[in-house]
Specification:
With 242 residues, the chain is α+β, with helices and mostly antiparallel strands. The chain contains seven helices and nine strands.
């Protein structure tokens, strides 16, 4: 049976008209073309939601940035005056400025080399027309001291009248000898003042005081003025020199 069926079907296929295949293919192409053209012709049949998604316009582009602010050109005005004198310009100006006499005058704040805060119109390096008293520094007059201390070696060369002391007889008999040291103030006139004993043997002291009170000295000058001198005086008593 199976063979009969195959044979029958094979026979039918052989008897099929080839125009049938062409007609079938043409109908399929026509059907597909109708399906494509219907949406294009009848647009109202399309879903509104889907159509809206396709027809929405794209967002507008962002606005351009604002134009940069025009930079203000700073015009540097150069003065044609240099310390009150005209100098040669580097370029020819479009408009020639008219200089007045008061514009060429030097500033009234002062003169180069003058005193800060001086009077306007003063001279260079000086104070003419200014207040001299405000600039002058008074020099304080230092008074010399009334009394100074001078060594015995210096005052020894100032003696102009030196009286030799008398050797006391009792001290000579007792064979007493040595030095008597006295403290004294030499006045401005060279006389001995405030004489007193510092050291020495009691038997020799009085003779030394009596002799030194008669001594005279040259006045001691300091800064051109005489002053009192505080010093010491030594009187020697020796048996060999008597």
């Amino acid at each position: 049976m199976f063979e009969d069926s195959l044979l029958e079907s094979a026979g039918k296929l052989k008897r099929t008209n080839p125009g049938y295949a062409v007609l079938s293919f043409s109908l399929e192409v026509l059907l597909i073309g109708i399906l494509i053209l219907i949406p294009l012709i009848y647009t109202e049949a399309l879903p509104n939601a889907a159509l809206a998604t396709f027809l929405v316009a794209p967002p507008p582009p962002p606005p351009p940035p604002p134009p940069a602010a025009a930079q203000v050109m700073k015009v540097r005005i150069e003065s044609e005056l240099d310390r009150g004198q005209l100098r040669q310009p580097t370029a020819i100006p479009r408009k020639v400025a008219i200089l007045h006499e008061e514009d060429m005058a030097p500033p009234s704040s002062g003169v180069v080399g003058g005193v800060l805060g001086g009077v306007p119109g003063g001279s260079s390096g000086g104070v003419i027309g200014g207040v001299l008293g405000s600039l002058a520094t008074p020099t304080a007059h230092v008074a010399p001291p009334k009394r100074i201390t001078v060594s015995q070696g210096v005052t020894a060369g100032m003696v102009i009248n030196k009286v030799q002391p008398l050797y006391p007889p009792l001290a000579k008999q007792a064979r007493v000898q040595g030095q008597v040291v006295l403290a004294a103030i030499i006045g401005k006139d060279g006389t001995i003042q405030n004489l007193h004993v510092v050291s020495g043997h009691p038997m020799l002291v009085q003779s030394a005081l009596d002799a030194v009170r008669q001594w005279r000295y040259k006045p001691y000058f300091l800064n051109g003025e005489p002053v009192e001198v505080d010093t010491t005086i030594t009187v020697n008593f020796s048996l060999t020199g008597s």
